[in-house]
Structure formats: structure tokens, C-alpha cells
Specification:
alpha+beta, Alpha-D-Glucose-1,6-Bisphosphate, Chain A, domain 4, seven-stranded antiparallel β-sheet, 27% helix, 43% strand, globular
Length: 151
């Protein structure tokens, strides 16, 4: 994964607590300003490689849902998922957790794989024309909310 946007934050909580919170995708609405809720699909009930979930998103009056598949899971260290539409992976997301003396450093990264011809339609659906700037602000909020909940 070659991220377009990366944000890090020190969180005064053990890596195990951060990993548990991030991988419980049913709590994603507590952290993310865009993903208002997420739910497991196809019988999945917890994070595992191959598990699929649907994220329900909102930006102003725009709402949309996206399926994501967990593609990497290293306990207390890494959580990565790919978002797709009709089998095409259009974005990748990764959380990395590094233990520190005071808790951990959490890094959230995303890679935008949308082809140029889909950008206008994507902006119509989400109301977001500048996805990188929007994602950076959202990622900063996500990590701040996660820290506030766990510290």
C-alpha cells in the first residue's frame, strides 16, 4: 500500500485497547466523522482476514454505503481493509499501532485508487471534491475521538 494521506497520533492507552476498539467495526461511528455506522456482512461477527463489512457514510445531506474487506490483521499492530464497488478496489485503509512508553503511536493511512474518469461521479455521491484534504481532516478527527474514548 502506498498511502496518499497518513496521520499519526500518540494515544495514552495500551496497543491492545486501541486494536480492540479499531477492529470492532461496529464502533467506527464513534470515531469517524464520515462513517456513521458499520455492520458485519455474510455471517462475520469479528475482525478476521476475509471478513466483510459495510460502512454507512454521511457528508452533509449526502449518504452512501460501501463494502470493505479485511485484508490484513496483525493482533495489536495492524489492521487493513480495502473498500470496493462491484469488485473494484477504489481505496485502501490501514491502521498501524506501535507501542510506546506512554501507550502507543497510532497511524492511519489511506490510498485512493479511483480512476480519473470516476472522480466527478464520486464527488456527486459524497459531496467531496477534494478527497485527500477531506480524508486528512477526517482522519485527524478519528484519531482524536479514539484517543478521547480510550485515554
Amino acid at each position: 500500500m502506498e498511502p496518499d494521506v497518513t496521520v499519526s497520533r500518540a494515544i495514552a492507552a495500551p496497543p491492545e485497547a486501541v486494536f480492540a476498539a479499531l477492529t470492532d467495526i461496529t464502533r467506527m461511528g464513534e470515531w469517524s466523522p464520515e462513517t456513521v455506522r458499520a455492520e458485519w456482512k455474510d455471517g462475520a461477527t469479528e475482525a478476521a482476514v476475509g471478513a466483510v463489512f459495510t460502512g454507512h457514510n454521511r457528508n452533509g445531506d449526502k449518504e452512501w454505503s460501501i463494502d470493505a474487506e479485511i485484508v490484513e490483521l496483525v493482533e495489536n499492530e495492524r489492521f487493513r481493509f480495502d473498500c470496493s464497488v462491484r469488485g473494484f478496489v477504489f481505496s485502501k485503509w490501514r491502521y498501524e499501532i506501535e507501542a510506546t512508553d506512554g501507550g502507543c503511536l497510532v497511524t492511519e493511512s489511506t490510498q485512493d485508487l479511483r480512476p480519473p474518469e470516476s472522480l466527478e461521479r464520486s464527488a456527486q455521491i459524497s459531496g467531496v471534491a477534494d478527497r485527500a484534504t477531506h480524508n486528512r481532516a477526517g482522519m485527524e478527527q478519528t484519531l482524536a475521538r479514539l484517543a478521547a474514548a480510550l485515554e
